[in-house]
Predict the 3D structure of the following.
Amino acid sequence: MSTETDEFAEVYKAYFDDVFKAVYHRIPNRQMAEDITQDTFFAAFRRGEEFLRHPEPKLWLFRTAHNKILEAYRKTKRWDMEPLELHQELAAQDCYYEVELNLSALAVIGKKGWQVIKAYHVFGNTISEIAESESVTENNMRVRLFRVRKKLRDGMKYWTF
């Protein structure tokens, strides 16, 4: 193991708990807080020697964690709904939840709307790819996606699982 790796391991041990607590204070979702903390340390690790020679590594980590939190908020705000990764994890853990989610979504937004949601959020297709497959403009697809999300969000308020 190299000296740089040893130094980084010491920094990780020294500051991990502090960074995690700061992130968890801002985002009270344990899994998300752990992910952001890990992303923060990964960013520091990628910087390598530059990070290790920083005069205030703890402050650098806090600032980077803050930026990662803002990035997560922007993503959630952009989607304007609860991230679908949560639903994906449930579906992966138990097939029953996948069937229930599909049936509920189909009842609320229909087959066409559910296909658009899955194409964008689950399969990671871009707006332009979905628009091309549907033979519509990108702006039209953005509007459709926005409306389908809203309809899904509003419709799912009344479903209980």
Q: What stands out?
A: The chain has a mean pLDDT of 79. Residues 95-122 form the longest helix (28 residues). Helices lie at 3-26, 30-47, 49-52, 57-79, 85-93, 95-122, 127-134, 138-156. DSSP finds eight helices and no strands in the chain.
